[in-house]
Amino acid sequence: MGYLITSRSQGSISATVLIATTLTFAAASVTAQPARPADTEVHTPVPARVTPGVRGGDPPSDAVVLFNGHDLSQWVATRDKSAAGWTVADGVLTVKKSAGNIETKQTFGSYQLHLEWKVPAGISGTGQGRGNSGLFMASPGAGDAGYELQILDSFENQTYVNGQAASIYKQSIPLVNASRKPGEWQSYDVIWTAPVFNADGSVRSSAGVTVLHNGVLVQNNFVLPGETRYIGKPTYRAHGPSPIKLQAHGDPSAPLSFRNIWVRPLDAASSAP
Ligand code: MG
């Protein structure tokens, strides 16, 4: 290894000194360990084999299916952990606003998630009162506690841009508006990195999220400054693996529907179903 040392005098390089005392050693090392293709090949651990879904959006073989069109056996009411009271009909889950938010029985750390949602055709209302729901990527508490990826009719509906569809609510504006019109199914694909907390409750590493809306990148590894809040600035509270939650928003517009919801845990933190 050699060192190139320059010094400046009166604004110009006046001397250049090359120290070559280690050059002989470096040359000898290269001779002793010639680079080979195999030097940089890694053979273990072998990635687990996963059978992908037949069509885009279908659950892969290792997915935890949270809603497959038949029942709400994977979900409970957020407010009292009783049976989830939303409506299942014709393979579709529809929000029942009077029943409040619902959340998964199972808790999760980091994961990949797929979810499809639809604002009903003929939706009424304006702004945040038009087809509002939400995916709380982790729910460490009651009500709207947690980290909300907004669901809203944003096809032709003005609102604050950090509250439109595909925003991380009041934290991150989506990169683009990839909304389909009411009456058409839309998809979210989410890569969620759960926050990690120290024993004293301080943040060891923040939450992060990447989101595709209808296959279009809208959140690119956004690092969250805390839980999403309707009023005030985001803050963290320490929590472990948490349910995934869907929002029953209180506005009077017609309720949204969901289908084909599945998740792939990415760490060992997720609980058994
Ligand atoms: Mg919402």
Would you kindly provide a written description of the structure presented here, covering whatever features stand out?
- The chain is mainly β and 273 residues long.
- The chain has one domain: Jelly Rolls (Sandwich).
- Helices cover 4% and strands 31% of the residues.
- It contains one helix and 17 strands.
- The chain has one helix at residues 23-32; strands spanning 3-9, 12-19, 64-67, 75-77, 87-89, 92-94, 102-104, 111-118, 133-136, 148-151, 186-193, 196-197, 203-205, 208-213, 216-223, 245-246, 257-265.
- The longest helix is centred in the N-terminal third of the chain and has 10 residues, at 23-32.
- The relative contact order is 0.21.
- Bound molecules: magnesium ion.
- Residues 132-134, 148, 150-151, 247, 249 line the site of magnesium ion (MG).
Give the bound compounds: magnesium ion
- The percentage of residues in β strands lies in 25-35%
Order of helices and strands: EEHEEEEEEEEEEEEEEE
Major sheet details: 8 strands, antiparallel
- Structural class, by secondary structure, is mainly beta
Poorly predicted runs: 1-28
Give average pLDDT, whole number: 90
The total strand number stands at 17
Radius of gyration: 25 Å
Which CATH class is shown? Mainly Beta
CATH homologous superfamily heading? Exo-inulinase, domain 1
Shape descriptor reads globular
User: What is the oligomer described by this structure?
Assistant: single chain
